[in-house]
Amino acid sequence: MKITTESKLIEIKKAFSSHYPGLKIEFFIDKNNDGNLTADEKYSEGESLLSEISNSTNSILDMSKHTTAADLENAFKEHFAVMVQVFRKSGSAWLMTSASDSIALSELSNQALQSTMPSAGEAPLDAMDRMELE
C-alpha cells in the first residue's frame, strides 16, 4: 500500500481499512505540541489532501504486511510530519493500539476480526489499549 501527499485523507483511511479489516487510522494535529493525542485534536477534514496538513516535501510512504502499528505511526510523523493513530476493533469498541503497537498490522487485523464482545466483567483483549477518544 502506497500513500502520497496527493492522497485524500478519506481515501487513505478507506484503503487502510480495506487492506487491514478491523483496523482504522485517524489523523491528528498536535495543537499544543505535547505529543499527546486528544479528541479535540482529531483531524476530520476527510476530503483534504495529505499535503494540506503536512509541511513535508516527502511524497511517498510504502507499507507492507510486516509493518507494525508503531512503524506506521512513526513513518507518518517522519515522512509527512503528521500524527496518526492506529485503532483496532474489539467487540463494538475501537481501541488505540498503544499496548500492541509492536504487532504487525496484518496480525492486529486478524486479532480484530477474531475479537468478540467481552462477557460481563471480562476485560477487552488488550486491557492496556485505550478506548478511542470521542
Give me the secondary-structure topology:
Blueprint: E1 2-4, H1 9-19, E2 23-28, E3 42-43, H2 50-53, E4 60-62, H3 69-80, E5 83-90, E6 93-96, H4 105-114
| Low-confidence sequence ranges | none
* Count of runs of 4 or more consecutive helical residues: 4
* Estimated share of beta-strand residues: 15-25%
**Biggest sheet features:** 4 strands, antiparallel
Report how far apart the termini are: 28 Å
What is the count of β-strands? 6
Helical amount among residues, as a percent range? Answer: 25-40%
- Principal-axis shape equals globular
Task: Output the strand order for the largest sheet.
Answer: 3-2-5-6
Order of helices and strands: EHEEHEHEEH
Quaternary: single chain
Radius of gyration: 15 Å
Q: In total, how many domains does the architecture comprise?
A: 1
Structural classification:
alpha+beta
Average pLDDT over all residues: 80
Structure description:
By secondary structure, the chain is α+β, with helices and mostly antiparallel strands. It has one domain. The protein has helices at residues 9-19, 50-53, 69-80, 105-114; strands at residues 2-4, 23-28, 42-43, 60-62, 83-90, 93-96. The strands form 2 sheets. The chain has a 4-stranded antiparallel β-sheet with strand order 3-2-5-6. β5 (83-90) and β6 (93-96) form a beta hairpin. It is globular.
Structure, briefly:
With 134 residues, the chain is α+β, with helices and mostly antiparallel strands.
Q: What keyword list fits this structure?
A:
alpha+beta; 134 residues; 4-stranded antiparallel β-sheet; 4 helices; two-stranded antiparallel sheet
